[in-house]
Design brief:
about 425 residues, alpha/beta, Aspartate Aminotransferase, domain 2, 7-stranded mixed sheet, 4-stranded mixed sheet, 12 helices
Length: about 425
């Protein structure tokens, strides 16, 4: 697993944390994973900082879940206020869910005009799976080779990044991610569309009607692929020609992170049939959603009784509303654009000094840095990446990695990340690269 603690190697772990790890293993079982060779113990968060029990501050360059910053006071106040007023489910009439739905849908193209709320991105993708099957009559789904879309039984089979222990279902086809760095000058959009057509043809050859293409629009688990803007359009056309829908998983790239607009799909000039969201929409509070074209949702609603006890509860919706207010009020989409461009420029300057940096790519405050053994062969260097991730942790900077070879630094800090934080990260990265070279 990428950036995982090995419970058999605890020599570097302090006694206090070692005792907590032993307690955790006893109580939570073996399936959970901790980050870093020397796991980090946190007790408090604020903005772009996380604090350990001794008061040491760690710069968070990774946790997109706290999208508007850890413990943002406006979000905390909205949560507390609504929790003290009312919290129930969607089978009673309440204006909080409607106010939030109107505000959220206002960020989407007019054709995407209905929303269903869940608690997690996994649930949202599971719901999109059901809606796509209901609308198309098909059961075949196409995902990328190292995708992550969630942990329900069905969606885990569409999440190859979970590892060899979770095998794709017989109705799932995986295709290569649109990797421009290794494309050799080929048109990644056309190549990706061709892979979709081939996968759809293979599904039909096995008697399976394609239902949907499901992609994370920044391809975060595959290694972060954002360029060139627009490359997704041919693939969307290809799945629709095959009778399927396009589902945009915006759990990670959504809510302004890519810097150009609210949603990753907008960079590609396309309109999905279904859009799923999660994690960042509640700044860590468990709220998620699926947005749909009403003509697609109609048949599902006519035939299916759907109920989610906590999805869309008033507290969650008040939190979601507060997150949108912070994104607007603090100009966080433009901050993602400007700080992201500044950070990418700084990373490219580092690449002039460090041969290990093979590629810098991304959009806004979602950036991938691919590490290689040498630039001529572009051979992936997962070993150096692991040393770098753990070396940064020792400098109190939090980062992780992705990609099929675990050699791409995944940079996605809270959206309140500023230039001063970027400078601190760049200095730490420079020093750690020199150390592990």
């Amino acid at each position: 697993m990428i950036n995982a603690f090995d419970a058999r190697a605890t020599n570097a772990v302090a006694p206090r944390e070692r005792a907590l790890i032993e307690r955790r293993q006893k109580l939570l079982g073996p399936a959970y994973r901790l980050f870093y060779a020397n796991p980090v113990h946190f007790v408090r968060g604020e903005g772009v900082w996380l604090y350990d029990p001794d008061g040491n501050a760690y710069l968070d360059v990774y946790n997109n879940v706290a999208s508007v910053g850890h413990c943002h006071p406006h979000v905390v106040a909205a949560l507390s206020r609504q929790a003290a007023t009312l919290n129930t489910h969607t089978r009673y009439i309440n204006d909080v869910i409607l106010d939030y739905a109107e505000k959220l849908l206002g960020y989407f193209p007019p054709a995407l005009s209905q929303v269903m709320f869940t608690c997690t991105g996994s649930e949202a993708n599971d719901l999109a799976y059901r809606v796509a099957r209901s609308h198309t009559g098909g059961s075949g789904f196409i995902v990328t080779q190292l995708a992550y879309h969630g942990v329900t039984a069905v969606i885990s089979e569409m999440s190859p990044s979970l590892g060899a222990g979770v095998t794709p279902g017989p109705n799932i086809r995986t295709i290569p991610a649109p990797d421009q760095f290794r494309a050799g000058g080929a048109d990644v959009g056309q190549a990706f569309a061709a892979a979709v057509r081939d996968a759809a043809a293979d599904l039909r050859a096995h008697g399976i009607q394609p239902a949907a293409l499901l992609v994370d629009t920044i391809f975060s688990s595959d290694g972060v692929f954002a360029e060139p803007a627009g490359f997704l359009a041919p693939a969307v056309a290809a799945i629709r020609e095959a009778g399927g829908l396009f589902i945009a998983d915006e759990v990670q790239p959504g809510f302004g992170r890519t810097g150009a607009s609210m949603w990753g799909f907008q960079r590609h000039g396309i309109e999905p049939d279904l859009v799923t969201m999660g994690k960042p929409m509640g700044n860590g509070h468990p709220i998620a959603a699926m947005v749909a074209r009403p003509e697609i949702l109609q048949g599902f609603g006519d035939r299916t009784r759907y109920f989610n006890t906590f999805g869309g509860n008033p507290v969650s919706c008040a939190v979601g509303q507060a997150v949108l207010e912070v994104i607007e009020g603090e100009g966080l989409v433009s901050n993602a654009r400007d700080t992201g461009a500044y950070l990418q420029a700084g990373l490219r300057q580092l690449a002039l000094r460090h041969e290990a940096i093979g590629d810098v790519r991304g959009a806004g405050l979602f950036i991938g840095v691919e590490l290689v053994r040498d630039r001529a062969s572009r051979a992936p260097d997962g070993a150096t990446t692991a040393k770098l991730v753990n070396g940064l942790r020792e400098r109190r900077v939090l980062i992780s990695a992705s990609g099929p070879h675990a050699n791409v630094l995944k940079i996605r800090p809270p959206l309140v990340f500023g230039r001063e934080h970027a400078d601190r990260f760049l200095d730490a990265l420079d020093a750690t690269l020199r150390e592990v070279a």
